[in-house]
Amino acid sequence: MASGALTSRALVQHYLDRIALYDQAGPKLNAFILINPRALEEADRLDRERADKGSGGPLQGIPLVLKDNMNTKDMPTTGGSVAFAGAQPQDDAFIVARLREAGAVLLGKTNLHELARAGTTVSSLQGQTLNPYDLTRTPGGSSGGTAVAVATNMAAVGMGSDTVNSIRSPASACDLVGLRPSRGLVSRSGIIPAALTQDMAGPIARTVADAATVLEVIQGYDEKDATTEAVRGKRLPRYAASLDKDGLRGARLGILRSFFGSRPEHAEVNRAMEQAIATMHGLGAEAVELDVPLDVDQLINTMDVQKWESRTQIDAWLAALGPGAPAIHTFEAWVASGKYDKTLEKGLKAALPYEHPESDPEYLQRIGPRKEALQKQLLAIFADKTLDAIVYPHQKRLVVPIGESQVERNGFLASITGFPAITIPAGFSSGGVPVGIELLGAPFAEASLIKLAYSYEQGTHNRLPPKTAP
Question: How many domains does the chain have?
Answer without folding.
Answer: 1
